[in-house]
């Protein structure tokens, strides 16, 4: 109402008129009185009509825009009271005025923001008044009502804060709720204002606004539901976004929040998400998956149970084509497992598929989800063996990152729950394989895997922080309950750490020497060698050099390193020293590569598992197990026998790695006392432990009084103990006796001489003792032992059948099976087998007795030729014959490992020996293959069988037993890879020119030149025109060629082609004039050529590190020096068509092929044609007189003699190396031909059976 109105304004009693001319203070006083009076008025219908002009007067623009805040507040309070008193019919009728008044009131409500304001009570009164009578409902009649509401809601959300009481917030709701619940429409703008406050950033930054919005949604859910549904329909189904609305950009976040606040408003919305899950747009699917994953997985969520169709559709996204969607699904699986027992089966089923996902990030997340679940609530994972098995499978993943998490997760489970009293059955079952699985990781070729297993062993399986006794309990339990493969891995792990420790100790020792050029060169070499023991050798080299400089400049660091690698350091001192060293290396952060490299090295060399105190505890436990102590046996959950056996094996392993910790009188006394236990199974491992200790320092030197107790016991075992006791007793005496060793062994020898007869119950024991004395001390009893071998072992034992049980009479059709175990053999057969072994040990000890070796090879060859029945009686049991020929074959292999005596077999004997690969008895084939593999894998290149024997693997191509064939193939691949690895190591470490020249003698590619004559001489190959025979021979060739040609980056077609052509230009060395034999040889060459032509995928020209060379022991040079054998010796159907566009005639093929596609590396020593012809003739002479100066497939080059032991540390086979050879002081030719420290230029040093040292040109 304008001020120009002439209506008379009537004021309530006691109130003075409020006019424009008043000063601010006076106006405030009068308005206070008026406000107080209006406040006291009730809502009497029509009672206050006389004050309508006054109501219109105070709503004048003059007052609404008055400069004083207090005046405006009082006017607002008065207007609010007017609205209350006159409700529901307010005196204000003009829509424009009503809008102005409510905009004014909204503005005044802004004063609620600060509860500390002196005028806050009036602002609160204003809010209360407006809420009480729902004054804002008047606006429903206005066209602009939504604009007013939007402004009011915005204001309320902006001003609400922590300082407001619950009453204030309640009145705010009372003002706002009716405007939604009683409205005919809720605009999108208003919806946006409300709902944007339940989203980020308001949710976290303005929590009171979030709470207000949340309460609003709950109180007005019924009204808001259709509007919310319409909004989501608009956005989700129709895909129309209103850019002006904040919530349009955050649809999925909004659904998530609303589901939390008031799920009922989404009942019609959630089913629509199924369409989004199946959208062709990846981002849409990703958004809906992310939303549903959160909603389904939250604690107490019932969404999956209430919306089963949607849940099924969501599970389908675990197999989405998009990697990030699959990853997102898997990431949330942890929350499902933790929060929803009813959904675990569904999630487990989906994870089963995803753990085999082609994408590594998805497989990684599967492992992380399960491991994280286990960390938070182990019972979930332990109750589900499936989940544990998923992690188990991922320990074999092709990516190290995934393997690492899987292994660490399993180790954490093992450590955390091993000793829990209430372990569920699945966990109890799991810990039985977890420790095995972790240790199996050591079979991985990656250095990262090996370091990880070593770390987990010391931190989780046997935590180094535990007190010594507890630590040994864990170690004993671990070793006593792991499987055989894990046990081998544990042994290999200890050997590797010992090798690293030895190398680092030698490096530290060099730093103590005065600085000179020679020392620096040696240090540089040692550092280069040390890189082999760490991941990424090229990267770590720089940091190792830096560490070496650090050692030179910091004497304290050097002293600490000496402590770490000290033989007798305690675990505590080792840990303390490592901690101090690490402090000197800088900050322990990922970016400090120097710190991390040296930390890895320290982890490998520090001794934190075993020391003297720990060993005392372990020996006590083993004694307890032996005596049946229930405390020990209950802890291990094993019987006394098994626990004792495992405990003694563990002591044996530790004595090899930590012999110095055993060298204490109390420990040695307790070990020696175990030898008096009646159980014959106890003493051999104890003797083995004492042998290892003696190799470190003889007990006779340090503790003569203990030696005086030990010697009589060992003498008794050597003469009248079991064969095992005798074997270990001789070894133990050899390493631990010092001054009186000759006298001790003379007594034993005298005694066993008397017992070498079947009349003595100790015949077998005596033979075993004799063999080990001959092996360990060949020079001390040279003549007596030679006489015993000749008269007693050969003539009386091996060349005669003395007992009726050994030759039972005519063979009947009801003969027992072809094979029995050794324990079931007759005594004579058992003794004969020991006699064969004894002769092998005798020759190995002699090393260079050529005549004895030749005689022995002839006898062993006869055993094989006559199927084990040396005397051809025709009356022996097949099982005994099988064992005897197997023993003979194994003995030949063993002898062939030794230079000197091992060179004395002939080609025919070589071919006959190979027949055991195809023996009629499957057990013979199996065990011979194992012996062959062990011989080839042992100590490359000096302690193993020559490369000739790799050719034996070709005969496994005829194997009918699929399982055995597969096993032999694995042996062959392992031997091939080991040789390739060794070649890589010597080329990377910058070996000398001489090292390069020896590469061909190790290279597995040359096994083909030995396989070809073997196959040509095979008894089943009789006719070179017989297609079925040739097909079988071809399968043998492919058996060895497949691993050489496929998955081999170094494969060179030209080399193989030249090699086969050169073989075909030779004759057979055994029967050079026999046409059939030569034709068989050439036919095999043609088959090999056909295979490389048909199977080669890349004919790319490559450099090969060696020229093709042909062994004169098996091939004889043709009389015509210009002879080129181009004829094909194969039937037409087996000839192979050469590649198109070729120009040179290939032997054994029907078309021409391009010139030899090989770049042969120039020889380090060039020869003239005349020299070459001389070389050829020298090879010819050798082929005619192979026994005079044979040089077989064995390298004479040693990179570093004193590092040789470490080169053999990759075979998971045996803890102990071959028993000690005679000392360097030994006299006679044997000492000159020893492998260590041998003269590289000495003519007696063998290089290769197929190569004369002088022959470096092409044959």
UniProtKB/TrEMBL annotation:
Q: Give GO cellular component annotations, separated by semicolons.
A: chromatin; nucleus
Subcellular location(s) of the protein: Nucleus
Sequence ranges of Polar residues compositional bias: 1157-1168, 1246-1259
SUPFAM superfamilies tied to this protein? ARM repeat (SSF48371)
Which stretches does the entry tag as region Disordered?
803-826, 1157-1259
* Gene3D superfamilies listed in its UniProt record: Leucine-rich Repeat Variant
Q: Which example biological process does GO assign this protein?
A: DNA repair
Locations of Acidic residues compositional bias?
A: 814-826, 1198-1209
Q: Give the superkingdom in one word.
A: Eukaryota
> What keywords is this UniProt entry annotated with?
Cell cycle, Cell division, Mitosis, Nucleus
Composition-biased stretches, type Low complexity, lie in 1210-1231
Q: What is its main location?
A: nucleus
PANTHER family in alphabetical order:
ANDROGEN INDUCED INHIBITOR OF PROLIFERATION AS3 / PDS5-RELATED, PRECOCIOUS DISSOCIATION OF SISTERS 5, ISOFORM A
Question: What protein am I looking at?
Answer: Androgen-induced proliferation inhibitor
